[in-house]
Amino acid sequence: MNKILVLAEKPSVGRDLARVLRCNRKNSGYLEGDKYVVTWALGHLVTLADPEVYNEKYKNWNMEDLPMLPEKFKLVVIKQSGKQFNVVKSQMNRKDIGEIIIATDSGREGELVARWIIEKARIKKPLKRLWISSQTDKSIKEGFRNLKSSTKYDDLYRAAQCRAEADWVVGLNITRALTCKYNAQLTAGRVQSATLAMIVAREKEIDDFKPRDYYEITASSDKFKLKWIDKKSGGANIFDKDRAEDIVKRTRSSSCTVVDVIESDKRKFSPALYDLTELQRDANRIFNYSAKETLSIMQRLYENYKILTYPRTDSRYISTDVAETIPERLKAISLGNYKKFAQQIMGKKINAHKGFVDNSKIGDHHAIIPTEERVQLSKLSTEEMNVYDLVVKRFLSVMLPPYEYVQTSIRADIAGEMFTARGNVVKSRGWKMVYERGNTVETEGEEGNQVLPKIKKGDILNIRTVELNRLQTKPPARFNEGTLLSAMESPQKYVKLDSKSAKTLGETGGIGTVATRADIIEKLFNMFYVEKKGKEIIPTSKGKQLIDLVPAGLKSPLMTAKWERELENISLGNENPGVFSQKMKKYAVRLVDDVKNSRDKFVHDNLTGKKCPNCGKYMLQVKGRNGIMYVCQDRTCGYRENISRFTNARCPECHKKLELRGEGKGKIYVCPNCSFREKASLFNKKFKESENKLNKKDVSKYMKKIKKENEKPINSAMAEALSKLKLK
């Protein structure tokens, strides 16, 4: 009897499918049952070949060899994944395998993962497609009962292939052109360049900003404060100093009459469930985790502990079939501080309302929520617990009653000028009770925290003082990782565009994807285009110069949006993939010509007097995410040497994070904020004594976490090629 091979995208998904399909016999890289064999990829196993595979001359980077435009793209097995590819290929080639079911992620990239493996393995067997949006047993069983023909997704595969080939032909050509032209490690790409351009543009806004004085007027009664507002505009800011002083002069000695009191019952519902970007934003704002860190933590909670669902999702809703499993998920989290809230929800009929259950708002995957797996909180590291806590509290809050309060607004007249006051009285904490301990995520930005006395229209208030406050307008804030993720998700809010272009950007989901944005931000740091000052992201001189050197079209988020629109049309069968590919090749030719003909200069303004021990050229001093280092200015040399490393150790005097400088026995801890300096050996001895007394458990958890860290290669053609630049 012939068997059916099922190809999953990752081992964890493969194991879930195998359990449902009763494939209990374990083998290296696959699981087997009486009817099915389940095997898996590790993300991508196959990728587009590097340029040197097409021609030996591309091993050396020369401007005269550009552009590189393969007639037909070649596929290669990713070196790190070769063993698993051979397992998958051998199982596909088995004589007793009569059919293959593609069970990779239900989306464009998932389709590409499977099709490239099948193409590289030269498999010609019948194909079917499992297309599901959740990994519950019910969903899997239903999906296998309703398998689709693989031909239904041929256009989706062509769109994914076009995207990968376009990134190769545009990204690799412009990167080599810039690097050869300016003999510096310079990379560019449609998402990276557009993201960096937003950071550089924001910095220019800040540099060009000229603060203006403005004034606010407040009046203090016996029990609360009122603020002046303009009767015509409703604004509270006055830019005319003479007018402000005149208002203060007239109102200081005048009576105050209440002209209106409005009491409104207000209800505030919980924010929607987490998608990856929203989770990364909150984790950055509350815990200062980078986007990459949050994704890595989520990956462990999903794969190793199996207590949270798939992380790389852009949906904030769950499907109706997942909603049916809510009771099991609530039982799994009924422990610790979550128990009373979970039991409160289970004590009544669960209201699966449209605020979080909506099949029409789910793409490839549903929102991030807890699984039915019971968690042992003691096994989680501090970082894992923090992220898990955010997801569980959000999951509970969407099913709890709304936050209810009475909002009182008072308008009063003083000498013909209007003053207002606002206050809230809480009626029911509702879902906000979940956040009473730990970090409050949702209560930011609420107005009217002052308690107002019982008051009615016509009352005369005793005004003690009227104050004039001089303030200054502030420049726009620099990006941090959270706000940068927002800008990548909705660039139309941050870039000046016409309404049609803004609409296109909004409809295509911004620049990058939830799966790639963290890697893009990380690459900006690794290439020293940006650096951090506290939480703020600041472009370096290298980053600013690169944006000046990159052709205009490539740094516009609109280009990415147009690409996505065309790729969407290809996936729907409405556009010819061959036309798109030819257009991308012509665009790559234009980009290379722009760089070749440019008269711009690139200047290393971070050059030091220290010579490279390898090639003798002067080295650059750069600040990376993890510390300061020397890097050889010659990209072909690639030598680098640490100067100092940022640590988590705190200064005993000012409590700022310390830098570790020097090598060997000469290592010292230095505080960049105050004058503290101490030999590393002495400091570590003190630290270790304290650690042994207090933190053995935390240290053990940390070591386990490091061992479990499972950083997967990005596995894109661009990433594979850039690895040759010796960036790490």
UniProtKB/TrEMBL annotation:
<feature type="binding site">
    <location>
        <position position="9"/>
    </location>
    <ligand>
        <name>Mg(2+)</name>
    </ligand>
</feature>
<dbReference type="InterPro" id="IPR005738">
    <property type="entry name" value="TopoIII"/>
</dbReference>
<dbReference type="InterPro" id="IPR013825">
    <property type="entry name" value="Topo_IA_cen_sub2"/>
</dbReference>
<dbReference type="InterPro" id="IPR023405">
    <property type="entry name" value="Topo_IA_core_domain"/>
</dbReference>
<dbReference type="GO" id="GO:0006281">
    <property type="term" value="P:DNA repair"/>
</dbReference>
<keyword id="KW-0413">Isomerase</keyword>
<dbReference type="InterPro" id="IPR006171">
    <property type="entry name" value="TOPRIM_dom"/>
</dbReference>
<dbReference type="GO" id="GO:0006310">
    <property type="term" value="P:DNA recombination"/>
</dbReference>
<comment type="similarity">
    <text>Belongs to the type IA topoisomerase family.</text>
</comment>
<dbReference type="GO" id="GO:0043597">
    <property type="term" value="C:cytoplasmic replication fork"/>
</dbReference>
<dbReference type="InterPro" id="IPR000380">
    <property type="entry name" value="Topo_IA"/>
</dbReference>
<dbReference type="Pfam" id="PF01751">
    <property type="entry name" value="Toprim"/>
</dbReference>
<protein>
    <recommendedName>
        <fullName>DNA topoisomerase 3</fullName>
        <ecNumber>5.6.2.1</ecNumber>
    </recommendedName>
</protein>
<dbReference type="InterPro" id="IPR034144">
    <property type="entry name" value="TOPRIM_TopoIII"/>
</dbReference>
<feature type="site" description="Interaction with DNA">
    <location>
        <position position="176"/>
    </location>
</feature>
<keyword id="KW-0479">Metal-binding</keyword>
<dbReference type="GO" id="GO:0006265">
    <property type="term" value="P:DNA topological change"/>
</dbReference>
<feature type="domain" description="Topo IA-type catalytic">
    <location>
        <begin position="153"/>
        <end position="592"/>
    </location>
</feature>
<dbReference type="InterPro" id="IPR003601">
    <property type="entry name" value="Topo_IA_2"/>
</dbReference>
<comment type="function">
    <text>Releases the supercoiling and torsional tension of DNA, which is introduced during the DNA replication and transcription, by transiently cleaving and rejoining one strand of the DNA duplex. Introduces a single-strand break via transesterification at a target site in duplex DNA. The scissile phosphodiester is attacked by the catalytic tyrosine of the enzyme, resulting in the formation of a DNA-(5'-phosphotyrosyl)-enzyme intermediate and the expulsion of a 3'-OH DNA strand. The free DNA strand then undergoes passage around the unbroken strand, thus removing DNA supercoils.</text>
</comment>
<keyword id="KW-0799">Topoisomerase</keyword>
<keyword id="KW-0238">DNA-binding</keyword>
<dbReference type="InterPro" id="IPR013824">
    <property type="entry name" value="Topo_IA_cen_sub1"/>
</dbReference>
<dbReference type="GO" id="GO:0000287">
    <property type="term" value="F:magnesium ion binding"/>
</dbReference>
<feature type="binding site">
    <location>
        <position position="105"/>
    </location>
    <ligand>
        <name>Mg(2+)</name>
    </ligand>
</feature>
<dbReference type="Pfam" id="PF01131">
    <property type="entry name" value="Topoisom_bac"/>
</dbReference>
<dbReference type="GO" id="GO:0003677">
    <property type="term" value="F:DNA binding"/>
</dbReference>
<feature type="site" description="Interaction with DNA">
    <location>
        <position position="168"/>
    </location>
</feature>
<feature type="site" description="Interaction with DNA">
    <location>
        <position position="61"/>
    </location>
</feature>
<feature type="domain" description="Toprim">
    <location>
        <begin position="3"/>
        <end position="136"/>
    </location>
</feature>
<dbReference type="GO" id="GO:0003917">
    <property type="term" value="F:DNA topoisomerase type I (single strand cut, ATP-independent) activity"/>
</dbReference>
<feature type="active site" description="O-(5'-phospho-DNA)-tyrosine intermediate">
    <location>
        <position position="310"/>
    </location>
</feature>
<dbReference type="InterPro" id="IPR013497">
    <property type="entry name" value="Topo_IA_cen"/>
</dbReference>
<dbReference type="InterPro" id="IPR023406">
    <property type="entry name" value="Topo_IA_AS"/>
</dbReference>
<dbReference type="InterPro" id="IPR003602">
    <property type="entry name" value="Topo_IA_DNA-bd_dom"/>
</dbReference>
<dbReference type="InterPro" id="IPR013826">
    <property type="entry name" value="Topo_IA_cen_sub3"/>
</dbReference>
<feature type="site" description="Interaction with DNA">
    <location>
        <position position="312"/>
    </location>
</feature>
<keyword id="KW-0460">Magnesium</keyword>
